[in-house]
TrEMBL record:
Glycoside-hydrolase family GH114 TIM-barrel domain mapped to chain residues: 42-258
Protein name: Endo alpha-1,4 polygalactosaminidase
Coiled coil location: none
InterPro entries referenced in this protein's UniProt entry, alphabetically: Aldolase_TIM (IPR013785), GH (IPR017853), GH114_TIM-barrel (IPR004352)
Keywords annotated in UniProt: Signal
One Pfam family recorded for the sequence: Glyco_hydro_114
Leader peptide range in chain numbering: 1-22
Length: 263
């Protein structure tokens, strides 16, 4: 009798598992999270008046600067929307900048008004980052792009290790997943083998310029998009390889305005 009862239950569970797989058009992974597929088109704009006319299924825009209405408008046009946040560096112009104590602020990261964060101090940073991811969720975003996720490879002013970075990156991924949002691994190429299962897609800058794009293939092999941008190379120098590797590649300016050249 027990076997007769368990069989239909087991079949229902299996059916539920099948329904939770990613849709072929890059649709939901599970009931709550979106899974972008390799090669999907996208637009990345962090500065200037938001241009919603680019005919692509994915937009990556600034989480603080863009409104709930802007996200809703992109959704009405059938787009998925990624929330850009800096999670590994402090930015002096953000509305929550004063909530970061001086003790967690390190060296500048090369951009005006930005300083690396001491990612070992999760007691301080976790609630601040949770609030930021809450903002993304509350504005209706589908995913998060957390930036500056490779501090351990840079001169931050702190003795960060690879283990510190893995721990922090997984913390950020967990904050997004706990809120039903997808999350991308930004750069951090050396740790892709350890982190590919923790993230839903990757975002990479300049892998073609530095001969590193092959390092992103673990995401593609897992059925996960790699959103890739070059700033200095013409598209003739990287698009053929991008198509071979199934990357979602753009040429952009460093200012990340609306201008783009797609492969």
């Amino acid at each position: 009798m027990r076997r007769l009862i368990l069989l239909p239950v087991l079949l229902l569970l299996l059916a539920g598992c099948q329904r939770s797989s990613a849709a072929p058009d890059g649709g939901p992974a599970g009931e709550d999270r979106w899974q972008p597929r390799p090669g999907i088109g996208w637009q990345w704009q962090l500065r200037g008046r938001l241009d919603t006319s680019v005919d692509v299924p994915v937009y990556d825009i600034d989480g603080f600067d863009q409104s709930e209405a802007a996200v809703a408008g992109l959704h009405e046009d059938g787009r998925k929307v990624i929330c850009y946040l800096s999670t590994g560096a402090w930015e002096d112009w953000r509305p929550d900048a004063d909530e970061f104590p001086e003790s967690v602020l390190g060296e500048g990261n090369g951009w005006d008004g930005e300083r690396w964060l001491d990612i070992r101090r999760t007691d301080v940073l976790e609630p601040l980052m949770a609030a930021r991811v809450d903002m993304c969720r509350d504005k209706g975003f589908d995913a998060v792009e957390p930036d500056n996720m490779d501090g351990y490879r840079n001169r931050t002013g702190f003795p960060l290790t690879a283990a510190d970075q893995l721990r922090y990156n997984r913390l950020i991924a967990g904050l997004a997943h706990d809120r039903g949002l997808s999350v991308g691994l930004k750069n951090d190429l050396d740790q892709i083998p350890e982190l590919v299962d923790d993230f839903d897609f990757a975002v990479n800058e300049q892998c073609a310029q530095y001969g590193e794009c092959e390092a992103t293939t673990a995401f593609v092999e897992a059925g996960k998009a790699v959103f890739h941008v070059e700033y200095e190379l013409p598209t003739s120098r990287f698009c053929a390889d991008s198509r071979r590797l199934k990357l979602s590649s753009l040429r952009k300016t460093y200012e990340l305005t609306a201008w783009r050249e797609a492969c």
